[in-house]
Amino acid sequence: MISGTSVFPAERIDLDDETYLIGGKGDLRPLLESIREWGLINPILLQERKDQRYRIISGRRRLLCCIQLGWSGISARVATDALSDLDCLKIAVSDNRSHRSFNLIEQSDGIHKLEPHFSEKEGFTAISLLLDIPLNLKVFQKIRGLARLDTRIQEEIVRGGLSLEGAVALFPFEPSEQMGLFELMKELNLSQNKECELIELVDEIARRETVSPLQVIRSNPIRKIMENRDQNRPEKTRKVRSYLKQRRFPSITEAEDRFCANLGTLKLGNSIRLSPPPSFEGSTYNVRFSFKTAEEFRQRMETLQEASKKPAFNKIMQKNEGLGTK
Prior knowledge:
By secondary structure, this protein is of the alpha+beta class. 55% of the residues lie in helices and 9% in strands. The strands form 2 sheets. A 4-stranded mixed beta sheet has the order 1-4-2-3. A two-stranded antiparallel ribbon has the order 5-6. It starts with 5 loop residues before the first strand and ends in a 9-residue tail after the last helix.
């Protein structure tokens, strides 16, 4: 099924034919130095096409190194017609996994190349095992969807600058919207939770105001925040999130501002924390305070007692009507 090793002219091997390419696009320098010092230890595996040129089954990175080193003849073996396309893909996967793990984008690419060769019933399990993907259908579907994203977004996923969940949250958007959101998140360098929060806020604002997501993220307030060179990333992140929350939940933002203003006049100190109901819905407030001695306990109680007599406390306790997530 596979011939012995022979030397083939490099120009007869088609580097543009990526039929069986899964992965293999990483940094070539370590491999290049190895081949320079020790030669090509593992021959490349090829498949002859009808035009008498060859496509690569495995060893693309090794071939690129040989070409960079100026080799005109390449040591390779040729697969016979007895090997099916699925066999060739499995060999390509095995060759890569023998010395490294696949990243998320390589797994996504692998799913799309392998799926046509399996039935819907057996595909999920078989492909997951081949590509070392957890046997979880939801995770499998998320990884599969990454192949639809722009290559610039994919590259950031590989670098670890965009989380899987953040990337998945981009799926429902148009390509231009995906890039706009991605560029904003990249500039802010957000955590996974904040990536998803930002995308959700922008989407909800766009739907609520019947505008496009690009109009939201390119609005003047966000543009001015991002162009301010006197602010660092954390400051810009805080202001962008604050603006989006205020725009998405204006009534809650107003209630928060009123609450904070009244809370400041109570002068509770750092040891006492008064918290409003979540999203200012409901009527239950919470008080937490710390103390080390019985005297400190009495002082905290006296402070709360005095605070309860102030007009600001009565304003805080007034029921906030009409608030929520509408």
